[in-house]
Amino acid sequence: MADMASRSATAVAGELLGLDEDTAARPAFTRSGATADPVVSAAAPAGEDSFRSAFRLSDEGLVLLDQRAIPERLDEVVARRGSDVAYYLRLGVARGGPLMAQAAAYGLALTAAERADAPAEGRDLELRRTERALVEARPSSRLVGWAAERMRGVADSVEPSTSGAELAQLLRAEADTIAAHVSASLAAIAGELASALPGAQDRPLAVLLHGSQGALVGGLVGAGISALARLRDEGRELRLFVTEGRPFMDGARLASWELRQADLDHRIIPDAALAWLLAREELDAVLVSAEWVAANGDVGALLGSQAIAGLIAAMPADRARPRLLVSGLAAARDSRTVDGSAIPVELRPARDLSAYLADVPIRASDALVPAADVIPAAAVDALITETDVPAEAGG
Question: How many separate domains does the chain show?
Fold first, then answer.
């Protein structure tokens, strides 16, 4: 991981994604024909509780591990164009800003390849439609918009005479660069996060994780779990707790599964029992991933993050409070977002409640399911990114 952080983006992309460093010689995605098969295709369920990459590239397109089925099954779906990626993001197949940013970038490259033979005006119109669909699919993640903006910058920079095939090549190369940047950045964040988690040396390091913080949300690298695994490998004894993260059960289904892959012992706790836990356990830190960071330092994060911050702030003065450590890509910062009130918070469909909490259908009119909430800047003890770590926050 440390070696990854020190190498070039091109080299990292080549190693992690199986790419040739000669970008100009690399083919764009194979274009889908007009009679292409339906979007969804599923791999056979895994026979054992084993790791599978959150995404990979194939001749068919972008293959995504379906996070809705974990841990019971390790199903995969195939996106052949950007609109497919947007559809899967809306469904919750892929979650987490870093992963969704990479998927969005490759989705736009897929669309460019599919439309390579179309007239320039029609090709650009389709790319812009796809950009909007991707951003609107998960509006509470700043990183999806960031990836779309980078891809748009490439599309706008080409000469009018540039062929569709050349544009597809350029967008594929930019998607590779984004994927390499995200992976290298998360590796760097993991190292800094490990340094920010010393804890007391006379007892196990006690950490609460809120939400999945492994490769399932990072794509190829997960900062939080990588940091904890590093400390474990250095000989630190760990005492880990994971919130169940309702309604998607991010902790009980995803974070717990990834911690098992890393051979990290942990206990799952209902998010409603956090006050109980804080009253009985001396926690050193709480780890949260940032989806959006406003100009004033307010942080958009997984639903329940604001409640955790409030519980920590309400602890008695004679109790040692855990540090609230927020980590995320620097690209999650948006200077145009003045404060937390301007961070978009999407409402998820009612099925997100019924899918994991009950078999009884829930009507849309009966449900309010926000995907995220906002942590006030003053509640964040440190905001850790790849560019300025550790950056003290608050006030």
Answer: 2
Torsion sign across C-alpha atoms 345, 351, 356, 357: positive
pLDDT in tens, 226-272: 999 999 999 999 999 999 877 778 888 899 999 999 999 999 999 88
**Token pair recorded at residue 64:** 């995504």
138 & 148 share domain: yes
319 and 356 share a domain? yes
Distance, CA of 160 to CA of 134 (rounded, Å): 25
Q: What Rg value do the Cα atoms of the chain yield, rounded?
A: 21
Segment (H or E) for 306: helix 305-313
Domain extent at residue 220: 188-392
**Cβ–Cβ under 8 Å, residues 197 and 285:** yes
**pLDDT tens digits, residue range 353-380?**
776 666 667 776 777 888 889 999 999 9
Q: Is the peptide bond before 361 cis (omega within 30 degrees of 0)?
A: no
Residue 310 CA to residue 314 CA, distance in Å, equals 6
pTM: 0.86
